[in-house]
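in:
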C-alpha cells in the first residue's frame, strides 16, 4: 500500500552540504535506498563521489549517479515548498523545532503537494546560521547529551527511517506481510485443559497451588498468542510427556508398556 506514496517519496530531497568524506556520501545513498528514497543533492562536496563512495553505497550506485551537484544551497533547494534543516545542537536563536517523527510526517504531507528538502550539514560543524535561515523548521535527533556526535550518514539513516515509517502509517500498511492463523479461544481452552491434565499426571505442582499456577500459565500463553501450528506442537509435547509417564508407571508395576499413545502417533 505504500505504492501510493511513491510519488511523495520521490519529491523528498536529502541535501548534503559540503560533505568532507566521500564514504559518507555513499553511506547516505545506501541509507536512503533502503528506505525507498531516491533523491540526493550534493552542495559543494570537498570531493565528488569516488570509488570509496561506491564501495560504501553497497548497491545504491544509481542514487550516486543521479545525485545533483550544486555550487550553492540555493541551487539545491530550487522549487522546494518546505525545507527542514538537521541540527545536531539546539540553537540559541529560537527556531521552530521538530523531532524526527514529526519532521517525517510534515515532509510526507507536504511532498504530496510538491518538492521538499531535508538539509544535512558538514560533518564537523553542521549548518551555518545563514543556511539555517533558509529552513522553515529544524529537526533535532535527541542523542546522548554526553556524546551527541552523530555521523552524517547515520543521521540520514535515522531520518530516512522515520520518513518511511510515516509513509507506512499514512498508507495503513501492516507491519506483518501476512496474517497468522492464530489459535481460537476454544482451541486455547482445549490446550489449557490438556496442559492441566498433563501437569497433574507428571506430578508438577500440587492441588493447593494449581489454580495460581494455571492462571500464570494462561497469562504466559495468552501473551504469546500461538498460531495453530505452534499449538499443535505444544500439544504434541504434552502428549509425549503423558506417554512417558504412562510407560514409566507401567514399568514400575511390572506391567508391559503400552504401545505408543494415539495422540503421540498423530503427531
Amino acid at each position: 500500500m505504500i505504492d501510493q506514496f511513491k510519488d511523495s517519496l520521490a519529491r523528498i530531497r536529502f541535501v548534503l552540504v559540503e560533505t568532507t568524506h566521500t564514504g559518507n556520501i555513499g553511506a547516505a545513498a545506501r541509507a536512503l535506498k533502503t528506505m525507498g528514497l531516491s533523491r540526493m543533492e550534493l552542495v559543494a562536496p570537498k570531493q565528488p563521489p569516488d570509488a570509496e563512495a561506491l564501495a560504501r553505497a553497497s548497491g545504491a550506485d544509481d542514487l550516486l549517479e543521479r545525485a545533483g551537484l550544486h555550487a550553492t544551497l540555493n541551487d539545491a533547494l530550487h522549487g522546494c515548498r518546505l525545507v527542514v534543516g538537521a541540527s545536531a545542537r539546539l540553537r540559541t536563536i529560537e527556531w521552530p523545532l521538530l523531532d524526527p517523527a514529526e519532521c517525517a510526517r510534515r515532509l510526507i504531507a507536504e511532498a504530496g503537494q510538491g518538492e521538499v528538502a531535508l538539509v544535512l550539514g558538514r560533518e564537523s560543524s553542521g549548518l551555518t546560521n545563514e543556511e539555517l535561515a533558509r529552513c522553515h523548521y529544524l529537526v533535532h535527533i535527541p542523542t546522548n547529551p554526553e556524546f551527541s556526535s552523530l555521523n552524517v550518514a547515520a543521521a540520514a539513516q535515522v531520518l530516512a527511517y522515520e520518513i518511511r515509517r510515516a509513509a507506512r502509517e499514512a498508507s495503513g500498511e501492516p507491519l506483518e506481510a501476512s496474517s497468522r492463523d492464530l489459535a481460537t479461544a476454544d482451541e486455547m481452552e482445549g490446550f489449557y485443559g490438556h496442559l492441566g491434565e498433563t501437569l497433574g499426571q507428571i506430578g508438577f505442582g500440587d492441588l493447593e497451588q494449581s489454580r495460581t499456577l494455571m492462571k500464570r500459565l494462561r497469562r504466559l500463553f495468552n501473551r504469546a498468542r500461538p498460531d495453530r501450528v505452534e499449538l499443535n506442537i505444544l500439544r504434541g509435547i504434552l502428549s509425549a510427556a503423558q506417554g512417558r509417564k504412562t510407560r514409566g508407571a507401567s514399568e514400575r508395576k511390572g506391567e508391559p508398556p503400552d504401545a505408543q499413545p494415539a495422540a503421540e502417533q498423530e503427531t
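note: Residues 2-171 form a domain with the Alpha/beta knot fold (CATH 3.40.1280.10).
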